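Incident log entry.

Two folding requests arrived from the same account within the same minute. Monitoring flagged them as a possible duplicate submission, but the sequences differ. Recording both here for audit purposes.

Request one:
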Amino acid sequence: MSASTSTHPQDPSRNPWPAVIAAGLATFAVVTTEMLPVGLLTAIAPALGISTGEAGWMMSLPALLAAVFAPLVVLAAGNMNRRRILAALLALLVLANTASALAPSWGWMLAARVLLGLCIGGIWAVAGGLAARLVPAAAVGLATSIIFGGVAAASVLGVPMGALIGEGAGWRWAFGVMALFSLLVLALHLWVMPALPVRSALGLRQFLALRSNRALQTGLVLTLLLVAGHFMAFTFVRPLLLEVSGVDAQWIAALLLAYGLAGMAGNFIAGLAAARRTRLTVAAVALGLLLVPLLWLVFGGSHTGGLALLLFWGLAYGGVSVALMTWMMKAAPQAMEVAAALYVGVFNTGIALGAWAGGQVVDGWGLSAMLWPAAGLAAAALVLATGHAVRQRRMGTR
């Protein structure tokens, strides 16, 4: 961790796993809220009088703001107990979901997504590095997989359940259910999360000290490339399935559930693999995200092809968060909270840029055209990750 935090559980006699699960549920809640428009895009857009491309801003705006808020939350937090910060952010998440459910206009919805951006940046920055503070060193890999399993679980349950609720009761009820769920996560957090004090406040000096960390810089570039490439395409996965693969709308929720299940598997496979071979795991993930859009151009025009590629997509992307966070922890083990804040900032910049650029391409050239730049970004990440892995192997490191 950083100089301001401890890297060991504070009370060895306390069972740390309920707190780890609570942190995983917090990431699940905030990522589900962030991703909810993916499964509801074609329902929200006409209701608020906007185009499908414009609706992509529901993804881009909070992600872009999260990139700014992540380091600012860490800096503004000073030496405040991290347990209190997480509680405050979860309370704001309840408010953001409630505001989205009640949004009477596009402007109101954007305002709610601005508030969500603060929640995303803060929760990810704090929760991302909690594993080493909650569990013994030997269990950090599993704890990290559980915490970031909330991201994959958001795809398994959150996005498809949101789509299912949207189909049956309307998209507003999907946000309303998330408001209630976020409230329950807040209650659990207050019950099981131990105090997370810091010894000293973080400042710009700790951030600037990482300027010469080449491994960290490489990890941040990989994060930007992989996440932007993924969300350039995934923001519009519903239209892809409907218009390119010809899937009936009633099957979207089930298909997104299958995608999420594959993502859960990818999360734990990559989490265990990254603990031993971090760089090669990231390279494998990049290869998977390169193949998905390329193969979709060839085989995505059928029901079977779309389903098979969606499952493979989930498996590949499921490993992104945990593999890259493991990269960050290994690159800056003594400044983990700072590294986590930078990682969250770049990750959400990737979401914002990918969703925005995807919307521009979709509105200008159509859905299939968007798959080419998505593949290009993944290819660049594969080259970078492979090159870094080869160099580090020659140096005898992993």
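Request two (distinct sequence, not a duplicate):
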Amino acid sequence: MKLYEKLADDIETLIRKGVYRPGDRVPSVRQASQQHRISITTVIRAYLLLESRGVLESRPQSGYFVSVRVSEGSVQSDELRPSQPIAVSATVDVSRLVLSTLRSIGADDAVPLGSPYPDPFLFPYEKINRYASAVGRRRALWGVNNALPPGSPELLRQIARRYLENGMAVDPNEIIVTVGATEAMNLCLQAVAKPGDVIAVESPTFYAMLHAIERSGMKAIEVATHPEYGMDVDALAKILETEKVAACMVMPNFQNPLGFLMPDERKRELVELLAKAEIPVIENGVYNELYFGDSHPTTLKSYDKQGMVLHCGSFSKSLTAAYRIGWALPGRYRDQVEKLKFLNTLTTSVVPQLAIAEYLERDGYEHHLRRVRKNYAQQANLMKAMVTRFFPAGTRMSSPAGGYVLWIELPAKVDSMKLYQLALAQGITIGPGYMFSVSNHYRNFIRLNYSSPWSPEIEQAIITVGKLAAFCAK
């Protein structure tokens, strides 16, 4: 346990024992620093963590006080929800904006608050690289046939075992290994729809899904999506009454950018609605392992009785992004997806497949994941507390149940592209809301990444973005 976490836990224990009562002022930052012989920065981080938990509240010019109310920065019920269902059919064209944004995010020395990727500092690269090196020596003479679809039998077996450990029986013969989840989504989309077809997506939605639709020459219909419960099934049902929808693409668990966990009942309702209409649904499950709760979330696939759910997964967000190993569970569309995989990229490199398979079999994947989840949950709380404290009045944000991104609604006057440019000039990247929709509905929204190790640099970057947002709001 880190020093600031211990201090936070000790203070919370004193509050629960009645030493400090609601409304009591706790020692000032300087006093606590002197009492515990720790740095002021450590005390601030502890107080911010307690503030994010709703245990403390800060009062300007007065200090920190014990509180029993929920943090004002958290999303409650219908906050951040569009005022009406969004059903905008349009040809998708967001790739240029996303590409230019990602290039700036990858710039040297930029603080990566806008990155879509998890920070690799928690990933076991060295272990996996050692397995890859050993596999390369043993399989040096292997030919292309060993990497043909559906993929390495060893990896297929390990993926199936992982699903079984999380409560879902999967036939290894259904799995097709791909070059990351991006290829899996593209293959699944090609298998169920054709150019010109209309695809239903969440609003906001992860831009990789919009890219897949754009690449295939299709159109997107955005469906109102609740920040805590996911896609509005009733709104989708109304759209289906008037629009011919070929497929639906969703991210029900820890959606990027909202971070919600769709309730099981709503998952079931969505699968049943689409099955009744004979509409396939492509499920992006890349963040499924990054939950903050006590148990692994269910999937749409677990409610699928007709093979209409095409489930996509990846190790890029939970284990290693370097090797880009993903997979698809395409249900009744398995043969089409396997054929498209062969026609599109022929193979997926066998060495990374076997290296990951050996890691999953021999090393502590679950132990690694527990460490990642704990870090992300703590950093999410810290970032929410910082945004609450330093962003302009009227700012609202999501309450992620997993993953590593935070969705923020800024005052209406703020243009996220202007804010993006101002932040970039300060060496800070953010994700402008324009990237997550085919409309301008999210012009005053941004997405921030909290996966990087918490540091004074990260804290100062958030403060700076808050000040710039306040400037834009004038």
